[in-house]
Amino acid sequence: MKNFFSNLFDFFFTPWWIKITTAEPKCIYYFGPFESEKEAVQYQAGFIEDLQQENAQQITASIQRSSAPDQLTIELEPSKSSAAMVSV
């Protein structure tokens, strides 16, 4: 019975997050938390626009309900521009 109530609580109180991945730089970004999916949808375009202004490439976004991620920005591999700056 405890599991049922715990799952029910999680369902109603788990926040919404926007997950955005980019190919260049190769990163995953999390934005949130949001109280509702509708609220996340309202903010999603602004976050995408910010990344486009920073010249991010191949941007994909999704909205998901989950607990807070361990990291808000995850760099999957060094970007080409970072690698170019290192090799002199």
Describe how the helices and strands are arranged:
Layout: H1 2-13, E1 16-23, E2 26-34, H2 37-53, E3 60-65, E4 73-75, H3 80-86
Antiparallel strand pairs: 1-2, 1-3, 2-4
How would you describe the overall organization of this protein?
The structure is a single chain. This protein has a four-stranded antiparallel sheet with strand order 3-1-2-4, with helices on one face. It has one domain (14-77). The model is unreliable at 84-88 (pLDDT under 50). It has 88 residues and is α+β, with helices and mostly antiparallel strands. 41% of the residues lie in helices and 30% in strands.
N- to C-terminal distance: 62 Å
Shape: flat
**How many β strands by DSSP?**
4
Number of helices: 3
Strand order of the largest sheet: 3-1-2-4
How many domains? 1
Helix content range: 40-55%
Structural class: alpha+beta
Q: Would you identify the regions where 5 or more consecutive residues have pLDDT less than 50?
A: 84-88
> Mean of the pLDDT scores?
86
Beta content comes to 25-35%
Largest sheet: 4 strands, antiparallel
What is the chain-wise order of helices and strands?
Answer: HEEHEEH
Rg, Å, rounded: 16 Å
Protein name: DUF1816 domain-containing protein
Pfam families: DUF1816
InterPro entries: DUF1816 (IPR014945)
